[in-house]
Amino acid sequence: MEKVNITSDFVLLGFSDLNYNHAAFFSIILVMYTLTWIANLLLISSIKHSPQLHTPMYFFLGNLSALDISFSTVTVPKLLSNILHGGTSISFHGCFLQMFFFILLGSTESLLLSVMAFDRFLAICYPLRYTLIMNDKLLFILNGSCWVAGFLHSLLHTYNVSQLTYCEDRLIPHFLCDATPLIGLSCSSTALEELFIFTEGSIVVTIPFIFVLISYWLIARAILKMKNRSSRSKAFSSCSSHLIVTCLFYGTIIFIYFRPSSDYSSQYDRIVSMAYTIITPMLNAFIYSLRNKDVKRALKKLIIQCFSIK
After folding, report:
1. How far apart are CA 84 and CA 102, in angstroms?
2. CATH of region 10-307, choose from 1.20.1070.10, 3.40.50.300, 1.10.260.40, 3.40.50.150
3. Residues 201-211: pLDDT tens digits?
């Protein structure tokens, strides 16, 4: 087999090997993508224009909404094109650029969710010292650290996979350029690359996930010690939305990336990938909007202001 040079294109097969109603599928994806933009932009605008939401929790939530919009935008437009035209070509550089931003945004969101758990831990377990500890400087450091760590993680992954030798088979059985299907196209030895990606990737996902579990274990202990029932209810409601969002995100990630390679199935991976690239980014904004009284109040005020006649 001949090595493919850097000017050669890959082909994203998407769901072209499955029998389905293209028009209906395209419409559903487009509606979800549009809702992702609208819901998250409304959430960001509400946080920006509501002084009562200028707190660390909503600062991180605004960043999460921005990540969700970007995360979907990296993959969905290409998927929509793929649904319309079948297998869609993508250049060598374009493929690895998509992979870089996909991993960057995904790993940054993973780290941000753990930071948000830490924020809830401080707010519930140390309420009197919360505003003193979670100051503007710490907010900048925590948020910046998520992006820097995500950037380095993505750079390492993308560089290692891009150095593999790719041969005549350029058909990627996925709707995005991800490490696992790309490694499957290589005609060179990939044992070291697979070991590195699994080990380093596990650290980036597992450590934040464990941190989230520990944070919520300590939060649960603190809540159970509260004597006032209304205080317990208020404390639980303040972190319930984040807990749901975290379960959705890590549940799909663990299903795809933490299982034996012998269980790999491109069909199931494509379907589950849709959950965390399309469905979860859309649901996150609705979960926070519908389960949070402050956000609902701010959204209502924003909508009234937008449609009021001056």
Report:
1. 22
2. 1.20.1070.10
3. 778 888 898 99
